[in-house]
């Protein structure tokens, strides 16, 4: 593909994935405004976040697999169209029910992550694959941060509906350009979609994420939470049996067992817990009135600006990681990124009395996110057969989301579990929560040390569009290749109460 075509393709992929990532965080700070405008209860309003999370979790790996089978460009255009429809429906929603349905449709856009990584692997020259994946990961990470920064000004100057009107035109143009100019990937998986496996995957993800995201309202010991978590375990076991027996599994379990894959996914689970919890709770901390003995009484816009150092740092480090990877390797970058996340959370736990301290810690965490996001994507993409890129990277994004949900739920329990007489959270909840997140990020860094040293370049590395080199000792890669077979719950304290999503 000519370099100009590479650039146009990357621009389309970055636009779609960046907008979807922004929609993940854009609505969280505006949730109280949505609740008030639509006269909804707090528990109902949280479904605006939960529906999006569940939908993305279900569609990301399934459509990643569909893209591997029928063509990544064709699936990409369909997913972009669904994202446009979801944003349009949300902008016009007359009530909270329609808005929740619109968020389900928007969640289909989660498949943009694995599809984009797959297209880059299939179409770009070998020497541009890793830098391009790093740059795209930087855009995805920055999109999440940008949503937190832009939400306040957009709602303040216009209306919450413009959070959805603005992406409509941008994504529609991206869909048109993708249809006209993005080439179809030559690499296809064989077989079909294991629809039983897809149904079971969807069922256990919903049974797991739903009680986690709603546990603060339902209660961790409630029959609904316990029953759904038990169902998630049972459905997960049934899903494993279905995938192991299927001629064309949705997720090839042999790929998931590759050392570079399971170790990277473990790091993704742990780091995702810390990352999404920080994204969800740091703005709420900044918005806490100073009368609580901590916090800065910031507005939604002010809290977003406090997150600006994180946004800038994650984008810069994400782009830089593409240049560093050939020198130090993706494994080292993942270890360093998770370690920086641990350091940032430790700083937040120990020093958070001044705005500059929080801004500094946010910047450090941003550096970690940029390095970790890019390195995880590169490790997965280069560790699996080309025909499994979409499904494998989709599961990595899902595992990171599951970790994020767990981290946000635990943080929510700590923050909202101890309330002052005024109804505001006690400072100790935040302190203990940030300390726990530091431990989770440290565990992610230790898990990353287990990633095989050749994980980024040996197993399944591409030598050109659509070609794979078998580089796994013992023939594991050849055995796998022969089959040819990317939120979070949020909670933030406001002046009057805590809103949990």
Instruction: Choose one word for the global shape.
Output: globular
CATH class descriptor of the largest domain: Mainly Alpha
Average the pLDDT over all residues and give the rounded result: 83
Structural class: mainly alpha
What is the H level of CATH, i.e. the homologous superfamily of the largest domain? MFS general substrate transporter like domains
Fill in the CATH topology of the largest domain.
Growth Hormone, Chain: A
CATH architecture of the largest domain: Up-down Bundle
The count of domains is 2
| Strand order of the biggest β-sheet | 1-2
Largest sheet: 2 strands, antiparallel
How much helicity do the residues have? over 70%
Transmembrane segments: 42-63, 75-94, 100-120, 132-156, 162-181, 193-212, 218-240, 260-282, 294-320, 332-352, 358-381, 402-421, 433-451
Region (Disordered): 461-501
Organism: Kitasatospora nipponensis
Subcellular location: Cell membrane
């Amino acid at each position: 593909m000519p370099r100009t075509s590479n650039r146009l393709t990357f621009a389309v992929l970055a636009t779609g994935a960046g907008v979807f990532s922004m929609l993940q965080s854009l609505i969280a700070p505006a949730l109280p405004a949505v609740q008030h405008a639509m006269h909804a209860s707090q528990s109902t309003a949280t479904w605006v976040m939960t529906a999006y999370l569940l939908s993305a979790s279900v569609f990301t790996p399934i459509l990643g697999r569909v893209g591997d089978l029928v063509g990544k460009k064709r699936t990409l255009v369909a997913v972009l169209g669904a994202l446009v429809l979801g944003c349009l429906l949300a902008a016009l929603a007359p009530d909270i029910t329609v808005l929740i349905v619109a968020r389900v449709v928007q969640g289909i856009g989660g498949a943009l992550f694995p599809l984009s990584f797959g297209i880059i692997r299939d179409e770009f020259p070998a020497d541009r694959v890793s830098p391009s994946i790093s740059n795209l990961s930087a855009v995805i990470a920055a999109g999440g941060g940008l949503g937190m920064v832009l939400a306040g000004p957009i709602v303040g100057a216009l209306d919450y509906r413009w959070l959805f009107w603005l992406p409509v035109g941008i994504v529609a143009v991206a869909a048109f350009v993708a249809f006209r100019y993005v080439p179809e990937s030559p690499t296809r998986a064989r077989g079909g979609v294991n629809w039983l496996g897809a149904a079971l995957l969807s069922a256990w993800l919903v049974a797991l994420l739903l009680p986690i995201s709603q546990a603060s309202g339902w209660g961790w010991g409630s029959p609904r939470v316990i029953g759904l978590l038990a169902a998630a375990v049972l459905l997960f076991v049934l899903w494993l049996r279905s995938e192991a027996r299927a001629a064309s599994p949705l997720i090839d379990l042999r790929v998931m067992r590759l050392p570079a894959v399971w170790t990277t996914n473990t790091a993704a689970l742990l780091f995702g817990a810390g990352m999404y919890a920080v994204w969800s709770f740091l703005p709420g901390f900044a918005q806490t009135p100073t009368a609580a003995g901590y916090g800065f009484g910031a507005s939604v816009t002010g809290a977003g600006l406090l997150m600006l150092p994180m946004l800038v740092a994650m984008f810069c480090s994400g782009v830089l990681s593409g240049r560093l990877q050939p020198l130090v390797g993706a494994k080292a970058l993942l270890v360093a990124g998770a370690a920086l996340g641990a350091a940032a959370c430790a700083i937040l736990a120990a020093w958070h009395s001044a705005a500059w301290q929080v801004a500094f810690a946010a910047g450090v965490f941003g550096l970690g996110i940029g390095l970790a996001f890019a390195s995880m994507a590169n490790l997965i993409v280069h560790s699996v057969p080309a025909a499994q890129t979409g499904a494998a990277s989709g599961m990595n994004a899902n595992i990171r989301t599951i970790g994020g949900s767990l981290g946000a739920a635990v943080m929510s329990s700590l923050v909202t579990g101890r309330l002052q007489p005024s109804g505001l959270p006690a400072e100790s909840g935040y302190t203990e929560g940030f300390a726990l997140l530091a431990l989770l990020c440290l565990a992610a860094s230790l898990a990353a040390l287990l990633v095989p040293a050749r994980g980024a370049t040996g197993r399944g590395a591409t030598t050109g569009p659509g070609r794979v080199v078998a580089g796994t000792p013992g023939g594991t890669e050849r055995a796998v290749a022969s089959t040819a077979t990317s939120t979070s719950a949020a909670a933030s304290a406001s002046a009057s109460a805590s809103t949990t999503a």
